[in-house]
Amino acid sequence: HGFPIVSISWRRQIPLFLDLGFRVICPDCIGYGRSIRSLFYVFLVSHLFTVCVPHHGITTEWAELETVVQKMPSLAYQLQFVSGAVEEYATNRERTKQVLTALFHGQSPTGEYGTSLEGLKFDVLPSLKRSDVIEEEELEFYTDQFTQSGFTGGLNYYRSNRQNFEDDQTLLKDRSGDSKIYCPTLFIWPSFDIIITKEMAQAMALFVPDFTLREISGGTHWVMWERPTEVNQILKEWISERSYMSSRITCIEPFLAQCISSEKIPSQVVAIKLKMGFSEANDNCWRIDVLPGTISAEQ
Asked: Name one GO molecular function term (predicted).
């Protein structure tokens, strides 16, 4: 998840994965909710599919945020996010709720939004009313979460660009300069997202060879909540097309296959190398630790 949401934002998608037979782990990112909230934290991003979070590739030359914003004006709000202005405003529960109401498309009685491409409109925030994007119960939950944690942990993700750039250079070196992501990737783009333009979404194909773009017409940045049925249908179709079914296991050593089929799992940890719809050229495999009654996986 991204800012300013937590793991509960996936609650309309989790049942889909459970119905498909998957086990689901949906944590709060570090700095959010009840997680660790260090003043600075280097973070890693894992990906399978993404909604409104594009990948722009890895650059070899550092660019300050001001320079990035000149090229991509829709990211101007990040200048406010890194400045500390949001934390300076949200000093109590009432103001925290105002910030969240604005970010979730709240409007004033005159129809004015509390946000623009430049960030939050602090003078408008006290007059905002909750939009239909989020239910009152959910808004109260988010308010409780961020009143407890504050916004600093989440906003620090925007402040870690320099560290991310330096980490990327190490990654490029380890990969002999190859900056592409070969994991099959689905990007769901809502056409009314004012931050992520269609051109930005389409440009991901330059950095992700096996890239699928799906559009939801009329959806906004919070399309996961607004149009959960359509989002889930896209996810289901993409998973099905890729044969990412939880029960699909191929290329297993015969002995282990026999153990699994007969439900006689050895007591010791067993490492299984399997393929799930990937080609030999870009072989992405998973290491599966099989214990009696449990299966866990790590890439």
From this structure: hydrolase activity
Q: Are 252 and 225 spatial neighbours (Cβ–Cβ below 8 Å)?
A: no
Residues near 92 by Cβ (< 8 Å), separated by ≥ 6?
147
Q: What pLDDT is attached to residue 122?
A: 98
**Number of H-type helices and E-type strands within the chain:** 12, 8
The C-alpha atoms of residue 184 and residue 278 are separated, in whole angstroms, by: 9
Domain boundaries, the chain: 254-298
- Phi/psi for 188 (5° steps) reads -100, 120
Mean pLDDT for the chain overall: 77
Strand-strand pairing, 294-298 and 119-120: unpaired
DSSP secondary structure letters along 232-299: HHHHHHHHHHTT--TT--BS--HHHHHHHHTT---SS-EEEEEBSS--STT---EEEEEETTEEEEE-
The one-letter code for the residue type at 161 is N
Q: Which of 192, 212, 216, 190 is nearest to 202 (CA)?
A: 212
Q: Compute the CA torsion angle 287, 44, 185, 260 (nearest 10 deg).
A: 20
pLDDT(99) > 50:
yes
Give the 3-state secondary structure of residue 107. Answer: strand
